Predict the 3D structure of the following.
Amino acid sequence: MSALETVPTDDVLLDEIQSLQGIHGSELGIQKIWDLIKAEHPEWSFGLKRLREIRKKNNLAPTPPRNSSLPAGQIILELKMVLPDILGGGAWEYDEPFPAHLCTPTSDPKDAQPLLAKIIGEREFDLRAKYKWKCLFCPKKATACYGCQSGALTRTPPLVVNAMYPVCSMKSLCGTFALTEAKRRMNEVHVPSK
């Protein structure tokens, strides 16, 4: 370091990073940030590693897109599994890989139903096994869940809300009651569009 060079504090560099990201966006690369700071303050002595650590420590580093680790043609579907208040309520949220072509404005929602039914069925099974629910309408063990879905597949990210009604049997009177209750409750659900 020459006599004319100075070492800026972490706080000073943090201010510079925040200012540059405010102007150029958070996706600005660390090398470009270094170049811009050095162009403005050639007398400063600091390294890329230090800049990277300051940015990371202050949660300013860009995060990879949610869909970046998915195979081509896949996006993340937000799935919310909701239990009625009568059973204590509850909601479980999952991020599920889902084919992007089923989430376009021109796609038919009916094409997504088989895959949605499979995903929801797997999640319901896991939740029933974990929580060992009783039937919503009688004291027997729940062996199935009547589910009623509402969703917005063209939303970003796509969202499906599944209201679950644990029942002893889908073919029993309890299953009929669950169907009636699910339809009534889903008329009250609002799915936000982003």
